[in-house]
Design brief:
about 475 residues; Purple Acid Phosphatase, chain A, domain 2; EC 3.1.3.16; 5-stranded mixed sheet; 6-stranded mixed sheet; alpha/beta; Serine/threonine-protein phosphatase; about 10% strand
Length: about 475
């Protein structure tokens, strides 16, 4: 695709290449009708490399191409069982969370696509700003290598989570609600687990009190929204206990951190593995500082009963964690770590530059209005400092001969306060956006628009501490 034209040569940051001029259409990415795919030199069904390179340049995709890609992938998912059987060697990939440029780096690191089996453990969307790019790339790979690429469902692949986080906003900005709903249908069709070489169970979250055999998973109706309770829920939401020994007073305990599902420990894991003649459970679902965690509850000499893999480095652009993928071959595991890749700057909530500029414009409009009113106010002996330094409301006294002066002061006081709020909003724009994102109702706390920068930073730090204490973002929304 040809880049966006710059006929005047006035692009400010010339080191950053311009994005593609037009979005990718079906003609660019799908094989022509009537293609004989049995020929050795036949093209792939979908040109995933063109898709990935286009997204690397900040390119877009037409709605028609996106819908076609989603419908084709949906048909492929529908043919798969709840548990997909995968031979080794296999690469396990954990949470990606919309970090497209880190996904590209990972694919470059692990080896030639098509030579390896991949099991992606879910949570492709939310948090990051490039969720559609992640999903479209993975879906294209799935269509090209349906028996080499296995995509499992994570707890974020549902309507409840994508509406509470940022994926819905992203899809409405890049496409519309129709494409979003079709995307949700593909999420409903994602398989729930993978069985690797009949030795490893791969799921997003973990095991369940209701999971005694593989048949229990295959009996589930997966083509729906993730329920509140039950085996389906636990496969998406459960966690291993955090202590190093894996000790729990009971086999499963309430998972208060998630507000749903269970915690499981060493005894529950060992019982499940022994009953099903398995070696290990590989799962994702939890950020890890090093990108992985080996839950060696049976001792360092034994194969880990549970392994957690997390593949989103510098999670949410703040964690500064490493990412990792796990390679399993001949009963041996190899872990490959990698750091984050710089990605293009995106305004919060995919906001456009005009919306972002409104506080700057409105501040100047209010300033003009203030100066116009002050010209008339001075004829009544009202000075700027009398208005801006005044705390509270001006008292209006109808019987007072200075009633008009009091009314003028009241108006000027309101405009002055509005000026301060607009100036504060402009100067502390990014802090307010972070605070708004942390509030459950997406509104800035009352009174903060008139606060100082230090008070705003203190409020932001308070929110961060509260968020760490109660793990709000790790809980399932009501």
């Amino acid at each position: 695709m040809e880049p966006l034209l710059d006929p005047l040569g006035d692009r400010i940051i010339k080191s950053v290449p311009p994005p593609p001029h037009r979005p990718l259409s079906s003609e660019h990415i799908f094989a022509p009708p009537g293609t004989d795919f049995s020929r050795p030199d036949a093209p792939l069904l979908v040109d995933w490399k063109v898709i990935m390179k286009n997204f690397q340049k900040n390119g877009r995709m037409t709605k028609e191409a996106a819908v076609r890609l989603l419908k084709m992938t949906l048909d492929t998912f529908k043919k798969e069982e709840n548990i997909v059987k995968v031979p080794d060697p296999v690469v396990f990939v954990g949470d990606i969370h919309g970090q497209f440029f880190d996904l590209v780096k990972m694919l470059d690191l692990v080896g030639k696509i098509g030579d390896l089996n991949f099991v992606f453990l879910g949570d492709y969307v939310d948090r990051g700003m490039f969720s559609f790019e992640v999903v479209a790339t993975l879906y294209a790979l799935k269509l090209c290598y349906p028996h080499k690429i296995t995509l499992l469902r994570g707890n974020h692949e549902c309507r409840q989570m994508t509406e509470n986080f940022n994926f819905l906003i992203e899809m409405e900005e890049k496409f519309d609600n129709e494409v979003y709903e079709l995307m949700m249908e593909t999420f409903d069709a994602l398989p729930l687990a993978a069985l690797v070489d009949n030795k490893i169970l791969a799921v997003h979250g973990g095991i369940s009190p209701e999971l005694q055999s593989m048949q229990a998973i295959n009996r589930l109706d997966r083509f729906k929204e993730i329920p509140r309770v039950g085996l389906f829920t636990d496969l998406m939401w459960s966690d291993p206990v955090e202590n190093e020994t894996g000790f729990l007073d009971e086999l499963f305990s309430k998972n208060s951190k998630r507000s749903c599902s269970f915690l499981f420990g060493n005894q529950a894991a060992n019982n499940f593995l022994e009953l099903n003649n398995l070696l290990c459970v590989v799962r994702a679902h939890e950020v890890q500082m090093n990108g992985y965690k080996l839950h060696q509850w049976n001792g360092p000499a034994e194969f880990p009963s549970v392994i957690t893999i997390f593949s989103a480095p510098n999670y949410c652009d703040v964690y500064n964690n490493k990412a990792a993928v796990l390679r399993f071959e001949n009963n041996q595991i190899k872990i490959q770590q990698y750091n984050y890749t710089q990605h293009p700057f995106v305004l919060p909530d995919n906001m456009d530059v005009f919306s972002w500029s409104l506080p700057f414009v409105s501040e100047k409009v209010v300033e003009i209005l203030f100066n116009v009113l002050m010209k008339g106010a001075r004829t009544h002996g009202i000075e700027v400092k009398d208005v801006l330094d005044h705390e509270g409301e001006f008292e209006l006294k109808p019987n007072n001969g200075l009633f008009k002066v009091d009314v003028m002061k009241q108006k000027m006081g309101f405009i002055g306060k509005l000026m301060k709020m607009q100036s504060n909003l402009r100067e502390n724009r990014e802090l307010f956006m972070q605070l708004r994102g942390m509030c459950p109702d997406k509104k800035i706390p009352k009174g903060l628009l008139l606060a100082t920068t230090m008070e705003i930073k203190d409020a932001l730090e308070h929110f961060r501490k509260a968020k760490d204490m109660d793990q709000v973002n790790e809980r399932r929304p009501n």
